[in-house]
Each structure stands twice: as structure tokens, then as C-alpha cells.
Design goal:
Number of strands: 4
Helix content: 40-55%
Number of helices: 10
Largest sheet: 4 strands, parallel
Structural class: alpha/beta
Length: 186
């Protein structure tokens, strides 16, 4: 799991299933990030770079992007990843590595809750991300009901993988989320 640097003023968290080969360690820093940036902002700089590099975002007039965080959940090399993509619940539930991953993500959600108090929207890209988030939220309910309730009260969008969203009609939902963060022109 690639952790993001938690930002106190973060209001939206984009969670993608895994890094692409051309991302070079920055989620949405490659070809898909470029497509997403063009569709959402009409810019020719990868979306991940705009989120990571505040000075670049400010220079082109998108300073509000500092309120968006991006993280990836998987590298794609985990032993349980193919079964997770297929939705094979029985094999996943007995996998010790998956159990440890869920536990780590529960701790991560606790850290996000304590540090990112303004977070109100989470966008989950891909079936594997949605399943891990769901399992972690279920585990979190057992450990800390208050924090779990906070996450349940947030706006949670479940989207297909980023590669499908870019050419999908549901991109308008993400466009609206980003537009809501921008300061009004009125």
C-alpha cells in the first residue's frame, strides 16, 4: 500500500487500486493522470503532479487542488490481489496477508480521521479498492464505532478503475467534486 502524506486541509481523498507502470511512484502521475487532468481541468499536466506539487498547481490557477489527496492501495503483486479482483470472498477471507492488509488499512483510516478533520468525500476507484475499504470499515466498526460512523457519514463514491472512468459517462461526478472545491467566481 502506498501511503499518502496526510494533509490537514484535505477535503477529498481519491483512492485508486494500484500505480500504473508510467506513474513512477506518484499516483496519477502518468498517462491516466494526464487524461484525467485534461478531462477535469483542461490542463496538460498529470493530475497527480498537480496534487503533489502545490507550486505548479498555484502557477496555473488551481491552488484549491491542495485540498485533494490521492493514495493507492495495492502494488498489484500481493498474493491475494487476483482473487480480490475476481471477488472470490472465500479464498480472500482465509488469506493471512489480506487480513494483515485490512488491519494496516484500519490503522491508516484512524490516522486519516485524527489528522484530516475536514475530509468529507472519498472516491474509491476499482472493485479491489472498494472491497478493501468495505472490509476495513467493517473491522473499524468492531474496534471504534465513533470513527466508523464518521466515515459512514462521508460521501463515498464507488467508481470503476481510473482507466474506465476517463472514458465513462460517470466522469461528471468527479468533475463536480473538483469543481465544488474551486473558489466561486461570483
Amino acid at each position: 500500500m502506498v501511503q499518502l502524506s496526510l494533509k490537514r486541509k484535505m477535503k477529498v481523498l481519491l483512492v485508486i487500486d494500484r500505480l500504473q507502470d508510467d506513474d513512477f511512484g506518484v499516483p496519477l502521475g502518468g498517462h491516466l493522470g494526464l487524461k484525467l487532468s485534461h478531462v477535469l481541468l483542461k490542463e496538460s499536466i498529470p493530475f497527480g503532479r498537480l496534487i503533489q506539487d502545490q507550486t505548479v498547481a498555484e502557477a496555473i490557477g488551481h491552488a484549491y487542488l491542495k485540498r485533494i489527496g490521492v493514495e493507492t492501495m495495492f502494488t498489484g503483486e500481493e498474493s491475494y490481489y487476483p482473487e480480490l479482483l475476481r471477488g472470490n470472498r472465500q479464498l480472500i477471507s482465509t488469506n493471512e496477508d489480506y487480513y494483515k492488509t485490512v488491519q494496516r488499512y484500519v490503522k491508516h483510516l484512524l490516522a486519516v480521521h485524527s489528522k484530516c478533520t475536514k475530509l468529507h468525500t472519498i472516491v474509491l476507484f476499482g472493485r479491489s479498492t472498494q472491497r478493501l475499504f468495505s472490509d476495513a470499515l467493517f473491522r473499524l466498526e468492531e474496534e471504534n464505532e465513533h470513527v466508523a460512523a464518521t466515515f459512514k457519514d462521508m460521501a463515498i463514491f464507488q467508481m470503476p478503475a481510473v482507466s474506465r472512468v476517463v472514458r465513462d459517462e460517470r466522469i461528471h461526478q468527479i468533475r463536480q467534486i473538483v469543481a465544488d472545491l474551486a473558489p466561486s467566481n461570483a
